[in-house]
Amino acid sequence: MRKLKKATMVAIGLAASLTSAVALAAPASAETNIRGTESWDTDKLLMTLCTGNTGLHNWFIDTRNGSVVRNNIDADQASLKTPAYVEQFTGYCSYPQSSSWTWAGPQTQISNQVMNCGYRVTQSESITKSITKTSTTTNSVGGSAGVEWNILKDVLSVQATASYEHTWSWSKASTWTQSDSLSVPPRTKAQLNFAPLMRTVRSNPIFHVTHYMWEIGGDYSGKWWVPNTWRGRGYKDIKSYGAYYDAKANVINPDGSPVGTTIALDHPASKADCGF
């Protein structure tokens, strides 16, 4: 490696912007899990760097505790005033799907309650059941300050539909309405509940390093700009296993209705229920 003059470093920065714009559209290469490789919390680091954005950004990192600050000023000029323990890097985030699984969602009431206050005849009624499809996004690190939820939702939607097209409902909450019948025995009140089948799609965000810089001797006389490496360690795409986003939504049928089980629940009707 050799020391680079300021003009050379600025040229590298401009080239990095152009090449990384192309890289954003390319598939992510094999990434390295850095959890446990630093003295500080790398889960928190990844969740700070990758908040839903995919653009190229420049960062300062305090190597004593792993805290980072985004730099929007010219990289070389701003770093001249930083102490020796502060390093600098540029890169961008991607959010590939890392795993997925289904699970049973909680039961919810989907019909009005039907009351049969008679003593002898089973009452059959045609009712309309209303099922709400939902989707949410959560993260593994507490708090949501700075997370670009709308952008992240769209990113995860694109990633998930490649594998789960026509089976996974990722959208704003919507309601699916159907007709059904309910038979209610004498002296009984009944309702329909729905237990949905849900899917979680998890993404461990990846930060792709385009350039990394640190001081030489701490005397500010020169910098090392190293392309495509995290802290000079020979790998450029980093993640931390404990840093992830989970997108949760209904599994759906081909007609768009949510997959699940409709359950008829009935209970004895009291005198108060029937008004006598």
Please describe what this structure looks like.
Residues 1-28 and 74-80 have low confidence and may be disordered. This protein starts with 5 loop residues before the first helix and ends with a helix. The protein contains five helices and 16 strands. The protein has helices spanning 6-23, 42-49, 75-79, 149-164, 271-274; strands at 32-33, 57-62, 68-71, 86-94, 97-104, 108-109, 114-116, 123-133, 135-139, 174-184, 188-203, 206-215, 223-227, 237-239, 245-250, 260-268. Strands 1, 2, 3, 4, 12, 13 and 14 form a seven-stranded mixed beta sheet that branches.
Give the topology.
Layout: H1 6-23, E1 32-33, H2 42-49, E2 57-62, E3 68-71, H3 75-79, E4 86-94, E5 97-104, E6 108-109, E7 114-116, E8 123-133, E9 135-139, H4 149-164, E10 174-184, E11 188-203, E12 206-215, E13 223-227, E14 237-239, E15 245-250, E16 260-268, H5 271-274
Parallel strand pairs: 1-14
Antiparallel strand pairs: 2-3, 2-4, 4-12, 5-11, 6-11, 7-11, 8-10, 9-15, 11-15, 11-16, 12-13, 12-14
Percentage of β-strand residues = 35-45%
Q: What is the helix tally?
A: 5
Please tell me what the overall shape is.
rod-shaped
Given helix and strand content, the structural type is: alpha+beta
Uncertain parts: 1-28, 74-80
Q: Quick check: average pLDDT?
A: 75
Largest sheet: 7 strands, mixed
- Quantity of strands, as a count: 16
Helix content: 10-25%
- What distance separates the N and C termini? 92 Å
Order of helices and strands: HEHEEHEEEEEEHEEEEEEEH
* Rg from Cα: 28 Å
